[in-house]
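Go through this chain for my students:
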Amino acid sequence: MPGSKKLVVNLSETLNEEFNRALKEDCKKRSEFIREAIILYIEQKKSRKYIDEMKNGYLDMGQINLDFSEMGFSSDSTDLIEYEAKLSESDFPNDHNSETRRYILC
């Protein structure tokens, strides 16, 4: 393979035995097996990093979204109180120049 580098890896006896069993099961050469293992490791590492970044983003946005929703709730509550106050002080449409009638809302 042009431009390739040689890699020396020290393995314990146990790990070497497992490695040789895996090679036999997959019918692969050592270099092919190690190359695929390295690629798989790098892909999983990138995927894990992306998932962690997404998790942190959602956690960061959680407080911001909560603040926005509470601002809206506060505004809606104020609007509702003002609306109910106006309703409770309504006049009858055919009632001219008389006192304002007050109705209690339950």
Notes: Helices lie at 13-26, 30-88.
